[in-house]
Design goal:
The structure holds two protein chains of two kinds. Chain A is 33% helix and 25% strand. By secondary structure, chain A is an alpha/beta fold. Chain B is mainly α. Chain B has one domain: ABC transporter involved in vitamin B12 uptake, BtuC (Orthogonal Bundle), CATH 1.10.3470. In chain B, helix 4 packs antiparallel against helix 11. Classes of the chains: A alpha/beta, B mainly alpha.
Chain lengths: 260, 362
């Protein structure tokens, strides 16, 4: 499956475009990181991809089909979204939160069947959270909640995952654990589009990168080509060294080191 | 040791059976008890007579002789049985509607009558009393017609005004809430103009009917309550899994392929219908809709399918207990209003919830 944005302009009103001329492609088995300063329009772009906002110009395609006329139900079968803020007002049990991912398949007036429970169990196994199944969602850690939310997205059985800052406000350990799971999902054939404020994550995932900038063209390409000292300076207005090293497995890796 | 959902449900059902049998023995006319054997015999006879009537059996022809032979307790048990059934149904409806409103508005103190239906019921009673005066006591059919009609008019008016006032913006449930608050206040003020002008007798009739001091147990009342229960509870029963979506962010739910706006508006209409039935048939017992969802959530968790049964059974049980307590308080000509008991009971229950520290609301 291939997600393609062609000359998309998006914003909250018709008269004001937050982003213009957005062009990029993500296929299943790939990770694409959206980078850019606060307020540049990452979440707006996500909402446009998810049809929560109508594009002011251009189109979004899935496998060559324009999704403009797709129902949210049809889109949910292909793409699942994990938002940044997801604390339900009531103390749900983890397995029940994951089960909500099956709502689209079950229908408004239907009830989950044994197959749906199997899908939920598999999603929890995939995310390594089966031990949390009977815990109260609001009692578990931020990193665990993030994995639960991704499991819920997997329960939708999508081809693409859209993750809005999946590691935001997580401690270092949880951040690495969540990133490992995201990499595992890529290896399983899911396409992942995620926003992040850490360019290192794009290097870590060897992902494609969409670098959103204010008053400058949107850059798209491989992480190593896009995340450069020059581009980061233009996008974030800070000096950052991009350092290359060889890890224990002999792989050439890159990291960002800010110059303070 | 944690008690599982099924075990809790078994306890609850056992509790309902016990309380229901206990209710059968409570006298309707004066505080006191009939013996359990007498109550069961009366109930058995009532069932037998009704079956005979249904199938045109000869026993039905002798019904008056049979009733007379049984003495005064027969009518007492039959009335008590019907009052208990109506009370249980109203408790169910109020608790379910409380859960709907608390979930949709994500607010633990969201009252089900807030969309104007409470004001609608009140207008219905005011019009009934002003038109028929003391004769209004014996006109349950007209009462239902007025109360349901005005409640539906209020609900429709609130929805229409909210839709018009939202203009080109998306029509949200919060628009609905603001419009309902303002509109209900204005209509309530107009209605109070008429209630303040009532003389003492009419004010008493008004109070008695509002508090449903006399529970109408005629077949029309049972029929209307049954129909409203069916058309409001059945769709919600089917919607109970999808209803979980309203507890989550709109965008999250939408990305899961669920139209939360549809679920919210549909369930609010069902919840409004439930609360109208509860108010019309059992009087001002709104605290049930606030209290029971809290208890249910702490006992059965937050998942809507579990909560559906929890609220349904617990709501009925709590209101039935309140009805039995009210029967033992000598008060006026018709007994103590059940609403007073509900309000008394709600205070210790809320204190217990707070002390136990069980989080039912984040």
């Amino acid at each position: 499956m291939k997600l393609e944005l062609k000359d998309v302009a998006c914003g909250y009103t018709k008269n004001h475009n937050v982003l213009e001329h957005v062009n990029f492609t993500v296929s299943t088995g790939e990770i694409c990181c959206l980078l850019g300063p606060n307020g540049v329009g990452k979440t707006t772009l996500f909402k446009t991809i998810l049809k929560l906002l109508h594009p002011n110009a251009g189109n979004v395609y899935l496998d060559g089909q324009n999704i403009a006329k797709w129902t949210s139900s049809k889109l949910a079968r292909e793409m699942a979204y994990v938002s940044q803020f997801h604390v339900p007002p009531f103390p749900y049990i983890v397995k029940d939160v994951v089960l909500l991912g099956r709502m689209n398949s079950v229908g408004y007036f239907g009830q989950p069947k044994s197959h749906d429970y199997d899908v939920v169990d598999q999603a929890m196994v995939d995310m390594g959270i089966e031990h949390l199944r009977d815990r109260i969602y609001t009692d578990i850690s931020g990193g665990e909640r993030q994995l639960v939310m991704i499991a819920r997205a997997l329960a939708q059985k999508p081809n693409m995952l859209v993750l809005d800052e999946p590691t935001a406000s997580l401690d270092y350990g949880n951040m690495i654990r969540v990133m490992k799971k995201i990499l595992a999902l890529k290896d399983k054939g899911y396409g992942v589009i995620m926003t992040t404020h850490l360019p290192d994550q794009a290097f870590l995932c060897d992902s494609k990168v969409v670098l959103l900038q204010r008053d400058a063209p949107i850059l798209f390409g491989d992480a190593s080509a896009i995340i450069t000292q020059k581009n980061l300076l233009e996008a974030y207005k800070v000096d950052v060294n991009v350092i290359e090293y060889v890890n224990d497995q002999g792989q050439r890796m890159k990291v960002c080191a800010p110059i303070i | 040791m944690q008690i599982g959902y099924k075990r809790k449900m078994q306890f609850l059902i056992l509790g309902i059976v016990v309380i229901f049998f206990f209710s059968m023995t409570v006298k309707t006319t004066v505080p006191g008890f009939n013996t359990p054997a007498e109550a069961m015999r009366n109930l058995y006879t009532w069932i037998e007579l009704n079956l005979a009537r249904l199938f045109h059996q000869p026993i039905w022809l002798d019904r008056f002789d049979v009733i007379m032979a049984l003495g005064g307790s027969y009518q007492d048990t039959v009335s008590r049985f019907l009052i208990s059934v109506i009370t249980f149904a109203c408790g169910m409806l109020l608790a379910l509607s409380g859960n709907i409103f608390q979930s949709v508005f994500r607010n633990p103190i969201a009252a089900p009558a807030m969309l104007g239906v409470g004001t609608g019921v009140h207008i219905g009673i005011v019009v009934l009393v002003l038109t028929y005066e003391t004769a209004a006591y014996g006109m349950p059919g007209t009462k239902y017609a007025y109360c349901y009609l005005f409640a539906l008019i209020m609900l429709g008016a609130v929805m229409l005004i909210a839709k018009l006032s939202s203009g080109k913006r998306k029509f949200s449930v919060f628009d609905l809430l603001i419009v309902a608050s303002i509109f209900s206040s204005v209509v309530g003020a107009v209605t109070s103009f008429f209630t303040y002008g009532m003389d003492n007798d009419l004010a008493l009739v008004m109070q008695d009917i509002s508090n449903a001091i006399i529970v109408n147990t005629d077949s029309l009342s049972l029929g209307i309550l049954g129909i409203v229960t069916l058309i409001s509870v059945l769709p919600f029963f089917l919607l109970r899994f999808s209803f979980n979506a309203v507890c989550f962010d709109n965008e999250e739910s939408s990305s899961m392929g669920v139209n939360t706006r549809f679920i919210k508006f549909f369930s609010l209409v069902l919840g409004s219908l439930m609360v109208v039935a509860g108010m019309v048939h059992s009087g001002s017992v709104g605290m049930i809709s606030l209290m029971v969802p809290f208890i249910s959530r702490s006992l059965f968790g937050a998942e809507s399918r579990n909560l559906f049964w929890g609220n349904l059974l617990l709501g009925g049980l709590v209101l039935l207990i309140c009805r039995d307590i009210a029967a033992f308080i000598p008060y006026g000509n018709h007994g103590f209003p059940i609403g007073g008991i509900v309000q008394f009971l709600s205070m210790p229950i809320f204190i217990l919830i707070l002390i136990s520290g069980r989080r039912t609301w984040e």
